[in-house]
Amino acid sequence: xxxxxxxxxxASGLAAQRHKxxxxxxxxxxxxxxxxxEGGPYKKKILLLTTTPVEGAFKEKLRDALRAVKVxxxxxxxxxxxxIYDPGHxxxxxxxFVTMPNVNVVTEMADxxxxxxxxxxxxxxxxxxxxxxxxxxxxxx
Length: 141
What we know:
Layout: H1 3-29, E1 45-53, E2 67-76, E3 82-85, E4 97-100, H2 105-140
Antiparallel strand pairs: 1-2, 3-4
Helix pairs in contact: 1-2
């Protein structure tokens, strides 16, 4: 069995979840940002993930079963901008409304917990594959 395939799959999952945590923390840190360099309020970022075939010894036998995770990109979510009435705010329009970022802190925290648990699952799978590889080497001695 090619253990490197297992390690590549686990590593791709770890990298994707690390990137997801980075996006979530950016969203959380800008949850109240009403003015950005581009103008207007901060727009929530969404991580796009896709799968990619894994090259290895099992490729012919498990053609579509083995897939690694790949970050396809990051997009801005323009939906759900909320407007609040605050005429004293420096970014208020002439009617006194301020457009606030579309970041829901509760949703972001739930996504962060999910990303953390997924990261932990990838670490556990990686450790299991490593243990199996070490035991296989011990059997061969």
